[in-house]
Amino acid sequence: MAPPDKRLFRCGARCKDRGVEPTSTPAGEAHDLVSRYREVRAWTERLAAPLSPEDQTVQSMPDVSPTKWHRAHVTWFFETFVLAENEPGFSAFQEQYWFLFNSYYEAIGPRYSRPMRGVISRPGAHDVGRYRSNVDDRMSDLLDRVDEGTLAKIAATVELGFHHEQQHQELLLMDIKHVLSLNPLRPVYAGSPAAATPATPLSWLDFDGGLVEIGHEGSADRGGSFCFDNELPRHQQWLASYRLADRLVTNGEWMEFIADGGYRRAELWLSDGWGRVNDEGWCAPFYWSQIDGVWFEHTLHGTWPVDPTLPVCHVSHYEADAYATWAGKRLPTEAEWEHAAALQGPQEATSPPRGSDVSTETWHPRAAGPADGTLRQLFGDCWEWTSSAYLPYPGFRPAPGAIGEYNGKFMSGQMVLRGGCALTPPGHARASYRNFFPAGARWPVTGVRLADDGGR
Amino acid sequence: MAPPDKRLFRCGARCKDRGVEPTSTPAGEAHDLVSRYREVRAWTERLAAPLSPEDQTVQSMPDVSPTKWHRAHVTWFFETFVLAENEPGFSAFQEQYWFLFNSYYEAIGPRYSRPMRGVISRPGAHDVGRYRSNVDDRMSDLLDRVDEGTLAKIAATVELGFHHEQQHQELLLMDIKHVLSLNPLRPVYAGSPAAATPATPLSWLDFDGGLVEIGHEGSADRGGSFCFDNELPRHQQWLASYRLADRLVTNGEWMEFIADGGYRRAELWLSDGWGRVNDEGWCAPFYWSQIDGVWFEHTLHGTWPVDPTLPVCHVSHYEADAYATWAGKRLPTEAEWEHAAALQGPQEATSPPRGSDVSTETWHPRAAGPADGTLRQLFGDCWEWTSSAYLPYPGFRPAPGAIGEYNGKFMSGQMVLRGGCALTPPGHARASYRNFFPAGARWPVTGVRLADDGGR
Amino acid sequence: MAPPDKRLFRCGARCKDRGVEPTSTPAGEAHDLVSRYREVRAWTERLAAPLSPEDQTVQSMPDVSPTKWHRAHVTWFFETFVLAENEPGFSAFQEQYWFLFNSYYEAIGPRYSRPMRGVISRPGAHDVGRYRSNVDDRMSDLLDRVDEGTLAKIAATVELGFHHEQQHQELLLMDIKHVLSLNPLRPVYAGSPAAATPATPLSWLDFDGGLVEIGHEGSADRGGSFCFDNELPRHQQWLASYRLADRLVTNGEWMEFIADGGYRRAELWLSDGWGRVNDEGWCAPFYWSQIDGVWFEHTLHGTWPVDPTLPVCHVSHYEADAYATWAGKRLPTEAEWEHAAALQGPQEATSPPRGSDVSTETWHPRAAGPADGTLRQLFGDCWEWTSSAYLPYPGFRPAPGAIGEYNGKFMSGQMVLRGGCALTPPGHARASYRNFFPAGARWPVTGVRLADDGGR
Amino acid sequence: MAPPDKRLFRCGARCKDRGVEPTSTPAGEAHDLVSRYREVRAWTERLAAPLSPEDQTVQSMPDVSPTKWHRAHVTWFFETFVLAENEPGFSAFQEQYWFLFNSYYEAIGPRYSRPMRGVISRPGAHDVGRYRSNVDDRMSDLLDRVDEGTLAKIAATVELGFHHEQQHQELLLMDIKHVLSLNPLRPVYAGSPAAATPATPLSWLDFDGGLVEIGHEGSADRGGSFCFDNELPRHQQWLASYRLADRLVTNGEWMEFIADGGYRRAELWLSDGWGRVNDEGWCAPFYWSQIDGVWFEHTLHGTWPVDPTLPVCHVSHYEADAYATWAGKRLPTEAEWEHAAALQGPQEATSPPRGSDVSTETWHPRAAGPADGTLRQLFGDCWEWTSSAYLPYPGFRPAPGAIGEYNGKFMSGQMVLRGGCALTPPGHARASYRNFFPAGARWPVTGVRLADDGGR
């Protein structure tokens, strides 16, 4: 096979790879790269371990991809963008995989397009495992043997591959949660949920406005850390003073919204949102269902009564906005969120570290701890809807070349979310990270932090 | 679990169980029943053996059911209709299976409805195997131990279960053929296709008309063999003299139709058919595709160049009708077909007997043998579209009671097919057998036998 | 304009022209033809007279055509099939009308296709009137002046034009009834409904079976009257003895069906019908609505409380079949209906003659008169659903040539109705007339006559 | 009729009334109000004058409303919001009109919902004229007779009614343009297009950034002029320096884009836009069609060859964005646009004044005049797509009370357009005016002004 045309790379609407500036990654030493490579790759396999071949095959709606597709697609990334161009005597593991696991190809025809991923039973889960092992061996070999010049050249792409795979680790969990939710046997992915904790009151934190800067500080080659290009450039923005809730909206508070007719009062809703409420019969968050008058919630830990102290999750932007209107508040802008989060300092550590046994981990947002004058639950619980549409930053220019060609493509019709969630791999998110989904999306782990104008 | 309400039994649009008159089956001895039970049940498992858990999970379109669903549904039939009412201390293997594998429930809600069968990853293929074994053991015990009176009572239902399972054996193969057809890896279900044989010319056989009788001779308790109730009552019909082609239309002949603009000439088509041609871009039989100017056909033996001597298959009624118009002929009525087939005597023997290794069998229509003055290919190659709508016979009355309640339900909007096909289990079809599909269906193994008025 | 290609003529799914055998019409004298021409054409304009330009413009669903389209289309027929070929120095009134009013063109693109007829505001109702006058003048001139040879040649086409226009007279009323039904102002097309009359009991009439003949006796050139080719050939059919109700099912009887859960009991319905009941929320005949617990019916005379003595109308085949099942009866086959109707002698006279003022006529089925040992309400009230699919008669062959090319096109997926209705022009229907609609159609004036097997 | 509940008022997705702060209008003297009332109302009738009753009835797609609906709806506004509350002994002209012309009711059921406006043939165009006259007379009476206190109270609502009616004047023209575009007779609304003028080159104007203010200066009661509430509050925003093209993109430039594969190169398009290009077969602006290799454009003046010097119009946001990408530029933000427009001073005068005869006016964007160092074509030619999503300004709060209840409802999923177009009534637009449409809308008169970052 000729080296695949990198111009064709696009990860698809769900994958949302934004590329990096090609020279922006620190030329880490080969040893470190190999070690991080192994770590990232092993984590994907641990996440898939509890899932049967049948589980890994199902695509429960067009937005969802099968587990084995995720496992293969991230592998295809390394094979195509690293091995094909750098491995001596490169030969594809399986030529047809290039079509099956290349998300770009969804665009050119219905047959192997995104909604058809669930009909491709072969290669099976075990075959995908062999594909992964093969590419892992070849990647180790390559990274062990390349000269320093080549290493410097490919390090940024390998680094991008790590972050790409981490995105798919989160998607894999989001997607399998949806798959299992449709099964009346109420299957469980892992252990049991965290024990309930007492509710803590919501406090408001005040932030001065003024001329602030947002966006990532700069890319790696200028001494910064990794970022996607949609976080660039860092730029000035004028903010009026504002206030943010110090924790997320809870399930208990959401039940009050429901009890007060929240899903039946047109005046609370954006017009498009009200259309969805009626067309799709929304009356509670996505994974809630009522059994004999009691609300239950589908989680990766099984189906449990809704815990009122936990943050509400799996609500659309429309629901988040209607809730804020009902509460007499509003959602934060992404600039307000980032400015406040940055003031608080690096928060990545608040993401739960993960052990090697996924079945004993918690895969659900946790209750807020006691109020402490800081923004609680910034990372690691729920992605937080903002009131900002996903648009390019002033001065944004797509990176030259192949990967960059598709950078801004999704900057239309979607809303920005900030933070991170219980399914986000540790270390993946940051204050400047811009996640995005259409306003009606409900299967990501999304929650609500209220905001208000200052001086009220 | 309380014994399930038999009034709820309906096998769904695809399954099309038509019930039997409850007392119509010969009270075979228990030993024979057990032995036939084992035979039928084992054949289903042999058919599934080449299929991976992933293969068995996929539902490639709403009309298709996953292999493991077929395997479980036919088992549910015996558990529900035989064990639940007759097994002492009956307890369901798994209560939820009743919902998952009861095709009636497709009607009551979207969640576990027919189009959602492909999202239910659990129980997996192996779990279904355990369900089958459990029911098989309990069925053997029951049949071994029941007194003669009970045996007489349940024999008809068990017999119906055999024919029901045989229908699903054919559906299982039809469905997995569709699943595998969408996979660009071009998977193979079994061995290789039969070797090509020389084409033989088409001859016409003449049949006198007059007042004839069609329909099954009568049910078992009157000394006849098994039949579905839609084959009853036997009744008189007036036929003008007619002619039938002595073999099916071949791929080679179909290529002439294509070459002569068959799919582009509106005047050849029924109005609804022409709509489908245009809306769905039909330009050849369902499983044909053109690669570098050569027609290939997807089969259960893989993808092969179209063999011009084999009968054309996987064409809709609309295509069959358009072909007949193009050829200056017509399709036979079901009465003409049955009358002619009955004159020729029992044809079931023309279905290929099957060995125990499905991978060495032929799962595709075979070429016609040399002309011999008889109707060749009547059974065992392609179901043959007739020009008759699927309607009740004069005097048809649904059987009293539960199963009979749903007998005539599908007698609307479908066309009758006669004969049998390469996927039909040996001994399942007969001259009076009425198969039926909507005029646009293309995934069953359907072919064309031409007819003409007599005296031309 | 070159004479339009007659091969393109097709009147569309609604118009359902079936053509005639070209030489099958009596070569009436020119004078008679002109006089009948004037009569038929004038009746169309009288029917349109109560309708405003706005009324005449609306297309309320894809099956409905605007009044002014009907008026123009039937005019186009005479211009295209008579004038274009026979008028010396023919020149089209307006070239573009050929596209706008040629129902064939619905097939070739979305822009001027059937569902778009309601967006063509020009030519307006008045312009269509000028088109009609122009063609009428030219037709009179032509018929006055042609020699006998030409007259003989075109008489059959002119005759077909009459029957074509009569079909559209009925469609015009069916369609405007639907248009007005959607208007909350409850508009009235004409006068007031007929006064209520006492209900009369239903009696059963017995008919012997045997070898009978159905189909039209033969076309005009063999001394018969006009018929469409789908009524040919007359042929033999074997009937078992049967019984027919001597009147149509009434609104009062239908209310009992509703009260007994008729629309909620799956076991009464064909599978496809049950799907429609649920998908479209059917709970009563098409034009019924309940206001404060009382059933009202939209008619061309306005909205009135449902009169229990009138025949039920605007029910689909599915509803008719479910009602018959509920009543323990069945629908008649078309052969049974025609055989019985023919025995009773010509019935066309039962259609109400019409005066010149449409606003004082009754445009709704009337109550059955007193029982008199005959089949009451055979013509002129409701088209009667049969249990027969619309298929070609044995020996049916499309007429050679242009018009005949499309004859059998609609013989797929529809059910036969027999009789005639309150909107059918007097003299249009006959015992052998085969009307047809899809089983789900509810906007034609359709009713139910029950049948039963003999000897019960 | 009881006074209608003002809480129900909403003008629908297309009408997009945004309400005003109720006390924000100058209490003009009654005389002035009456005179302006007459002027606004008369203009609507002049716009409708060239349209036949049939033209006024058609709804060519769900987004379009019939002319007679527009004429009635704006009348309903005055009847409901002014007369019902202030007219002594108020009685509705026709009670049912409240349902038919109340755009709120589209939300509560399918029958009289927005997409069904085209099936309501009655009241006809003439009846609507009588409704208008009646309300006009009563409004004159009311305004003539009320005391000053009441006048002060209702003046703001009457003023809102003017702006509401002006919005519908533009919509009426937009909509009838679409209706007529589907008619193969190529109807003409008015006169002939403006004569061609020479093309003028595009120049760039530079603007400094910094901390700027945008938004309307404040409402009338604070001494300002009328504005909608979505233009408030005026607020600070930080802008980097930028450049704007001094004229709109021309048809000639767009042809270069087409010739360079603009509609076939995925890399130029936003992902959602590329989906539309493929799903809907976009290959040129909305009203363009190619005849024998020449591009023609449907206009209100008929169908004419595309004039390369005129601004391109009827392009979606997706197309505008793709064009800008192709040109190596970008679209302006709404803040950039408003800041630059405000610097240039009031521009409303650039809208063409209108005479009393609509048939001699120009209803199409005009060519740019000679370059003169200013932003040409800011108002009165094409609405200009910006890169800004339609979101609330910082500090935006819906006005208290009824009308304000629905203010922010449409701030989701739409893009902002600035300026005004050839169909906008003179005096209606202003620099702070925020128009908005979904990114895929093509039937408004939309064009493209390019922008770029400063310092390039």
Automatic annotation (TrEMBL), chains A, B, C, D:
The UniProt entry, under Gene3D superfamilies, shows:
paralog of FGE (formylglycine-generating enzyme)
Which residue ranges run through the membrane? none
Residues forming the Sulfatase-modifying factor enzyme-like domain are 209-451
Name the UniProt key words of this record, in alphabetical order: Iron, Oxidoreductase
Q: In which pathway does it act?
A: Amino-acid biosynthesis; ergothioneine biosynthesis
| Location of region: Disordered | 337-372
**DinB-like domain sequence ranges:** 37-170
Q: Which GO terms describe its biological process?
A: ergothioneine biosynthetic process
- Protein name, entry field: Ergothioneine biosynthesis protein EgtB
Which species is this record about? Nocardioides cavernaquae
Source taxonomy: Bacteria, Bacillati, Actinomycetota, Actinomycetes, Propionibacteriales
